[in-house]
């Protein structure tokens, strides 16, 4: 799926479908690419839900665009209400994703700083001299004479 957008679905969909996608893309803009991707998922929703693990899902996602024989059906789903997506929707989703990534990045940075501080404190504690010897400990706490 990661190569769907940069390649504009070339080598992913059959030629007739690619030409229809391009036609819509040049007329309506980038939102069509998102709609086509969502339509592909919608058309294969049942098969995806039946998968048992992520590897099986990945394989299915790689295969199902190549099986799209009827470009007219793909376009119908693409522009139906079930896959409706505006530029405003895409902008909002991008903003939400950016904010999530930013929070995650800040959290990871804080965790790394805390880990570094713990390691630094641990090194200081390990190298600190022991304040008393075993004999001093025995005299002080056990009352033994040595």
Automatic annotation (TrEMBL):
Residues 1-29 form the Rab-GAP TBC domain. It holds the Pfam family RabGAP-TBC. It comes from the Eukaryota. Keywords: Signal. One of its GO terms (molecular function) is small GTPase binding. Gene3D superfamilies: Ypt/Rab-GAP domain of gyp1p, domain 3 (1.10.472.80). The keyword Lipid metabolism does not apply. PROSITE patterns: TBC_RABGAP. Residues 1-17 form the signal peptide. InterPro entries: Rab-GAP-TBC_dom, Rab-GAP_TBC_sf, Rab_GAP_TBC_domain. The keyword Mitochondrion does not apply. This is Rab-GAP TBC domain-containing protein. It comes from Dispira parvispora.
């Amino acid at each position: 799926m990661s190569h769907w957008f940069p390649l504009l679905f070339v080598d992913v969909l059959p030629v007739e479908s690619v030409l229809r996608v391009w036609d819509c893309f040049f007329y309506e803009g980038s939102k069509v690419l998102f709609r086509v991707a969502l339509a592909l998922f919608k058309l294969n929703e049942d098969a995806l839900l039946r998968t048992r693990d992520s590897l099986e899902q990945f394989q299915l996602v790689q295969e199902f665009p190549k099986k799209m024989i009827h470009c007219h059906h793909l376009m119908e789903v693409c522009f139906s209400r079930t896959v409706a997506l505006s530029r405003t929707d895409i902008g909002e989703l991008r903003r939400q994703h950016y904010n999530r990534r930013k929070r995650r990045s800040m959290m990871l940075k804080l965790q790394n700083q805390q880990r570094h501080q713990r390691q630094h404190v641990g090194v200081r504690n390990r190298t600190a001299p022991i304040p008393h010897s075993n004999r001093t400990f025995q005299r002080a706490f056990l009352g033994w004479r040595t």
